[in-house]
C-alpha cells in the first residue's frame, strides 16, 4: 500500500472524534466556491496545472513518486481551498486552526510534483495571505522530517515571508543546507542528524527558531505539520514520540496564536493520529 493513503485522514478524524477533547473541536468543510486555480497560479505554472488536470482526466499519471488518480486534480484543488480557508479563519478569529487535507504540498515545485505532493499548499497560502492586504508578514515553519524544497523555492525571493525548515539530513529530497539564507536573509534551514530526539529539537527551537521568527515578527505563522519524525515512522530515522509534538506546538504558540497547522507527512497511522491529538490539545489549552 502507498504510504500516502486515505487511511491517514480517516484514522486522524476517528481519533479526534472519539477523544476527550471531541466536544471542543469545531469541524469545517473546505469551501467549494473559491477559485482555487487562481490561487494555485501564484506558485505553479499553467502548463503544470493543466498536466495534472490531464492526468486526472485520463485516470493515471505520475510525477516522480507522486501518483495521479482520477480524483487527484479535484481533491488537490479542494486541499488548497482548505488551507486558504484556514488562513481566513486564523486571521479573523486570532486562534489556531488545523487543516486536515491530503495530498500534502511542501515538495511540489513550480512545474513538477514530487514527494507525494501536487500543489504547494503552504506557499500558496502564504502568498494568498499577503494578497489579502491586511497581513504584512508571514512566517512558515516546516517541521516535517523532509526539507520543504517546494515551499522554499516559491517564497525565498519574497521579503515578507520567512521560511524555516527542520529536517533530517541526509534524507530526501537532499536539499536545504544550513548555508542558504536567501536574498533577504529570510531562510533558516536546520538539518538534523538521524537519531535525533526531542532534546535536539528543543535546543534548535530555543536557540534558532524562536529568535528567527521573533526578529521577523510575522502576523501569522503557517506550519507544515508533518509527523514523520516519529520514531515509529519508517520514512525517517528521527526519534520523536507523539507527546513531543505538544512541546513543538507550545514553541509555535510563543511566536503567535494565529497559526495555521497544515498536514504534510506522517505515515505510521497510530503515531500520526496520537501526535495530531497532542498538537490540537496544546492549542486548546493555550
Describe this structure in words.
- The protein is built from nine helices and eight strands.
- Helix 4 crosses helix 5.
- With 286 residues, it is α/β, with parallel strands linked by helices.
- The chain has helices at 7-17, 36-40, 46-58, 72-93, 121-131, 149-155, 198-216, 244-255, 269-285; strands spanning 61-63, 66-68, 97-99, 138-142, 161-168, 187-192, 220-225, 259-263.
- It is globular.
- The protein has a single domain, classed as Histone deacetylase domain (Arginase, Chain A, 3-Layer(aba) Sandwich), CATH 3.40.800.
- The strands form two sheets. A six-stranded parallel sheet has the order 3-8-7-4-5-6, sandwiched between helices. A two-stranded antiparallel ribbon has the order 1-2.
- A hairpin with a 2-residue loop joins strand 1 and strand 2 (66-68).
- Looking at the structure, the CATH topology is Arginase, Chain A
**Terminal CA distance:** 38 Å
C-alpha geometry:
globular
| Cross-sheet strand order for the largest sheet | 3-8-7-4-5-6
CATH architecture: 3-Layer(aba) Sandwich
The helix count comes to: 9
Summed up, the domain count is 1
Percent of residues in helices comes to 40-55%
Derived structural class: alpha/beta
Could you spell the SSE succession in H and E letters? HHHEEHEHEHEEHEHEH
Q: Please indicate the percent range of residues in DSSP E strands (runs of 2 or more).
A: 5-15%
Mean pLDDT: 96
Using DSSP, what is the number of strands? 8
For the CA atoms, what is the radius of gyration? 17 Å
Detail the poorly predicted runs.
Answer: none
Largest sheet: 6 strands, parallel
CATH hierarchy class name: Alpha Beta
CATH superfamily: Histone deacetylase domain
Amino acid at each position: 500500500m502507498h504510504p500516502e493513503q486515505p487511511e491517514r485522514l480517516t484514522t486522524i478524524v476517528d481519533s479526534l472524534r472519539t477523544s476527550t477533547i471531541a466536544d471542543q473541536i469545531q469541524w469545517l468543510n473546505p469551501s467549494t466556491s473559491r477559485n482555487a486555480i487562481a490561487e494555485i497560479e501564484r506558485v505553479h505554472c499553467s502548463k503544470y496545472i493543466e498536466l495534472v488536470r490531464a492526468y486526472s482526466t485520463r485516470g493515471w499519471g505520475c510525477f516522480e513518486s507522486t501518483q495521479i488518480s482520477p480524483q487527484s486534480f479535484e481533491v488537490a484543488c479542494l486541499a488548497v481551498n482548505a488551507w486558504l480557508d484556514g488562513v481566513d479563519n486564523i486571521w479573523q478569529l486570532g486562534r489556531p486552526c488545523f487543516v486536515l487535507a491530503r495530498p500534502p504540498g511542501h515538495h511540489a515545485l513550480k512545474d513538477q510534483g514530487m514527494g507525494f505532493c501536487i500543489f504547494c499548499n503552504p506557499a500558496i497560502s502564504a502568498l494568498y495571505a499577503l494578497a489579502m492586504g491586511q497581513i504584512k508578514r508571514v512566517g512558515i515553519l516546516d517541521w516535517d522530517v523532509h526539507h520543504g524544497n517546494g515551499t522554499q523555492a516559491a517564497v525565498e525571493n519574497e521579503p515578507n515571508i520567512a521560511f524555516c525548515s527542520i529536517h533530517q539530513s541526509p534524507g530526501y529530497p537532499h536539499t536545504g543546507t544550513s548555508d542558504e539564507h536567501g536574498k533577504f536573509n529570510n531562510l533558516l534551514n536546520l538539518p538534523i542528524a538521524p537519531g535525533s530526539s526531542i532534546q535536539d529539537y528543543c535546543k534548535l527551537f530555543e536557540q534558532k527558531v524562536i529568535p528567527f521568527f521573533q526578529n521577523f515578527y510575522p502576523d501569522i505563522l503557517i506550519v507544515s505539520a508533518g509527523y514523520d519524525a516519529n520514531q515509529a515512522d519508517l520514512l525517517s530515522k528521527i526519534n520523536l514520540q507523539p507527546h513531543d509534538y505538544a512541546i513543538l506546538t507550545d514553541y509555535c504558540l510563543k511566536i503567535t496564536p494565529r497559526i495555521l497547522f497544515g498536514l504534510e507527512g506522517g505515515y505510521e497511522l497510530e503515531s500520526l493520529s496520537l501526535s495530531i491529538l497532542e498538537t490540537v490539545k496544546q492549542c486548546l489549552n493555550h
